[in-house]
Amino acid sequence: MWLPSNEPEFVANGSLKRSHLPSLGYLRVLDKGNETVLFIKDEKIVGAWHLDVESLEEFYENKAIKSVIITPESKVELYKMESKLFETIIELNEETKLSLPIEIDFILVKYNINKSVDRDELLEKYKIREPSQKDVETLINEYTK
To answer: Over the stretch 99-137, which tens digit does the pLDDT of each residue have?
Structure first.
């Protein structure tokens, strides 16, 4: 696998918004030591590579897509590229090239990556109540004593 050694444009932990995705570039997903690279062009996955660290096996194309795992603990790095560099990298990593591009929604839907968190649901889930005006006043009074 040959990739340029530049810094990622954006790094996320398990959650990713569609707006973060490059129109041309790649996603690098690190999860429990496993590594996946998805080449993206115009919101489509055009190439994929996956390394399973337990077996030290490399997977390409569709098998790599099936091996992608994105959890809340995953580190997702986004790299943007210029057209010429992207085409060169795809040529150098020809074994990763998919015969038919796959919509990026496949990954976004499969792992609920694009899902926004509802504040009220989150507060209810963890049984957190909003402080009342009286609670706030009490805290301020205790702090200023």
So the answer is: 888 887 766 666 555 555 667 777 788 888 888 899 889
Its domain, for residue 80, covers: 10-115
Does 77 fall in a domain? Answer: yes
Predicted TM-score of the model (pTM) = 0.69
- Please give the span between the terminal C-alpha atoms of the chain, in angstroms, as a whole number: 62
Q: What's the rounded mean pLDDT across residues 39-52?
A: 89
**Strand ranges (E), the chain:** 10-13, 24-31, 34-41, 44-52, 57-60, 75-80, 97-103
> Would 79 be classed as within a structural domain?
yes
Answer for the pair 8, 64: CB distance below 8 angstroms, yes or no.
Answer: no
Name the domain count of the chain.
1
